[in-house]
Every structure is written in structure tokens, then in C-alpha cells.
Specification:
This protein is extended. With 214 residues, the protein is α+β, with helices and mostly antiparallel strands. The longest helix has 16 residues. It starts with 10 loop residues before the first strand and ends in a 14-residue tail after the last strand. 14% of the residues lie in helices and 31% in strands.
Length: 214
């Protein structure tokens, strides 16, 4: 993936402060719309793997684990050495898959000259990216509109954090936007910190990791 991520042809809303380095900004793009904000405190990358001990608690002869437990209990009470029938295999960790990459993101927005385009429209577009396009159903169960009962799930987004973390095929899992911030004379928010949880659609393979680094 190219070092400099481009949004050519896309409608861009959000932070427009030329004094802020591109390495301190975050871009979220879906289709022909791109939202940009300053990377806020708490923005991170979270990696989690599913490792479990399927033999945890088992003793020699796992089919008779309860009997083994009785054996262990009896041995401990009868021996001053504290013997056990549990083996190291019992604690062997087994990989059961990685979870998708997760990005808790704080997107800081503030207005320099146009609160609507720099803050309000950015929040609206993020909400649109988050939302599906499900067809309405009438009380009697018939679709309303074009007659097609099948709607659309939310589309995936591309995330670029500081020009160094670039990942396509992501989904917005949650979004929180304040309504109590300072407002302009026209009622538009002047400043807002948007809390987002974005995840890759699937876990990433080892070979895919280098392409996510800008």
C-alpha cells in the first residue's frame, strides 16, 4: 500500500487545520466520502488471540479425570511430598484463532471557519458510514418502497491513522458523539471528540501485517 494514502475524488469533511501534521490526523473513508480528524487521546491498536487450555484440570487418563482427582486428593493427604497426577500437558495452550484487529479511536474535530463542514458534517458522515440501509416493513408485513425486501448492511471503511496505520475492509462497531459541546450562532457544534470502535472484518494473517504499516 502506498506510503501516502490518497482520497482523490472523495468528498472530504472534518479537520482542515493546515498547522496540524498529517501524521497526527486520522482518515476514515467509505465510498466517495472521507472524514478527517485529529488523533485524540486513547487512540490505540488492540490485538487479541484466543488461547485456551482444553486439558485444564485433567490428570493422567483424561477419561477418568474425576478418578484422577480423587487419586490426587488421596495422594496429597497421604504424602508429605504433595504428589499430583496432573501433567504439564494439562496446561498446554492451544491456539483457537486471532480476533480481528481493533482500533478504539478518539477523533477530535474543531472548527476554524466552517463549523458545519468541519464538525457537524463530519459527525453526520460517520453516522452514515455506521448505518445500514434496511427496507421499511409495513405493519402487515409488506415492504415499503421499491418492493424489494432485501436491504443493505453497512459498508466497510478504510482507516488511515497518522499515515502509518492503513487498513482496508474495516467496520465501525460503535460510535459516540457529544451533544453538549460549544456551538456557533447557527447552532453547529464548534468542537467534538468522537469515540469510535473500528475493527477489521476478519483476523489478519502474518503475511498481511506489513501492508498495514503505511
Amino acid at each position: 500500500m502506498a506510503k501516502v494514502w490518497q482520497s482523490t475524488g472523495a468528498r472530504t469533511v472534518g479537520n482542515n487545520d493546515p498547522k496540524v501534521s498529517q501524521y497526527l490526523k486520522c482518515w476514515i473513508k467509505q465510498g466517495n466520502t472521507c472524514v478527517v480528524g485529529v488523533i485524540g487521546e486513547g487512540t490505540a491498536k488492540e490485538l487479541n488471540a484466543n488461547w485456551n487450555s482444553p486439558f485444564e484440570g485433567d490428570s493422567v487418563g483424561s477419561k477418568f479425570s474425576k478418578a484422577g482427582g480423587v487419586l490426587q486428593s488421596g495422594t496429597v493427604t497421604e504424602s508429605t511430598n504433595g504428589m499430583t497426577s496432573i501433567t504439564t500437558l494439562s496446561s498446554r495452550q492451544v491456539w483457537e484463532g486471532n480476533q480481528p484487529h481493533a482500533f478504539p479511536i478518539t477523533l477530535s474535530l474543531y472548527a476554524l471557519s466552517d463549523p458545519k463542514a468541519e464538525v457537524e458534517d463530519a459527525i453526520m458522515e460517520l453516522e452514515r458510514m455506521f448505518s445500514p440501509e434496511a427496507n421499511a416493513i409495513s405493519p402487515v408485513g409488506n415492504p415499503v418502497g421499491d418492493g424489494n425486501a432485501v436491504g443493505r448492511v453497512p459498508s466497510s471503511v478504510m482507516v488511515n491513522i497518522g499515515r502509518n496505520v492503513v487498513l482496508n475492509g474495516c467496520v465501525i462497531e460503535s460510535m459516540s458523539a457529544p451533544l453538549d459541546g460549544p456551538r456557533s450562532r447557527d447552532g453547529y457544534l464548534m468542537k467534538a471528540d468522537i469515540q469510535l470502535m473500528i475493527q477489521s472484518e476478519a483476523m489478519l494473517n502474518r503475511s498481511q501485517i506489513p501492508s498495514t504499516y503505511g
